[in-house]
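Protocol step 4 of 6: structure prediction from sequence.
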Amino acid sequence: MTVTLEDIERAAGVLAGVAQHTPVDHATHLSDAFGAPVLLKLENLQRTGSFKLRGAYHRLSRLSEAERARGVVAASAGNHAQGVAFAAAQLGIEATIFMPLGAPVPKLLATQGYGATVVTDGATVEECLELALAHAKSTGAAMIHPFDHDDVIAGQGTVGLEILEDVPNVRTIVVPVGGGGLIAGIAVAAKQRAAREGRTVEVVGVQAEATAAFPPSLAAGEVTTVERGATIADGIAVVRPGDRTFPLVRDHVDRVVTVDEDSLAKAVLTVLERSKLVVEPAGAAAVAAIMGELIEPAGPTVAVLSGGNIDPLLMQRIIAQGLVASGRYMTMRIPLPDRPGQLAQVSLLLADAGANVIEVLHTRHDLGLTVTDVVLQVSVETRGPRHQQHVLDMLRAGGFEPEVADAP
């Protein structure tokens, strides 16, 4: 079996009235910098907060009555968990979800809120998948894989149908990639629908650089497992492409690029500030690729915002990281002689440089200080990298030796 345009069109009929046809928003700020129209496909506004509902509901809807009676089981860090839990509740099916220890609390609580039984065990999603498979074997529950099933891929592919309906002249679709279910479905839908209409559409995938399994897999021509790296984009941190998704991505996706952590943080911050949208780091990966000039401005470009489920505490950290990465926040350590007037002199120089002081720590207890020295740690708001350099130059011209500290 393989997924076809007809499968995805049938899935769209099943999902009508369940999954929302999410809007497409024109991003003027990105378009101006990119040099071509950029539109955002707002799957972060989907029910349950991500595209995952589409594939989960379509998969569950095709279970037999006997399978439904035995219940379903899934493993997920959050978005797939919520999609399965919601779909199961809609269809009257009992659901058990394995979530890793340390899963984001809002995602865990939301999954429970949809009525699923949540089991927190295992350090990673891969370990949870093993636990879910063991549960399925012992109970007879149907295993609902997060991406590696034709029915799931077809459900996710309905995003591609909506993009072509709302942006008929789309030239490029940029999609966050984890295990490949979303981009496989979108690529099949977009490529086959466009071919039917006598035109072409480019589909580009984006992975987090820290855990990117598709580039080496595509280079090797076979599914390859990579080491899991630390990334804020937990929703796409998948160490191995799916056996079902890999050939579809290989045959229908034009290329897969990677973005680093600073790029992801800047993208989350940009979408929040300029488009007034809350997007999780994985969901902002496509925007990160556009901002990082990894996409050619060949025409109207749609970036899929795949999810908006983010822990507020993580959001706080990401905003701070995004500000630092954008050159809009800087913390400096400034050694000073311990005599009156030094703090006032630094303050005057910062004011003359146009830097807004956010926080100040004045201490005599830093390691390595003599009894005649103090250290001033000051955090300032700046307008970008050039302004930061101007601030540092002003301080040095005033006789001080500022050292830029690591990001908070």
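Step 5 (inspection) to follow. The chain has a mean pLDDT of 93.
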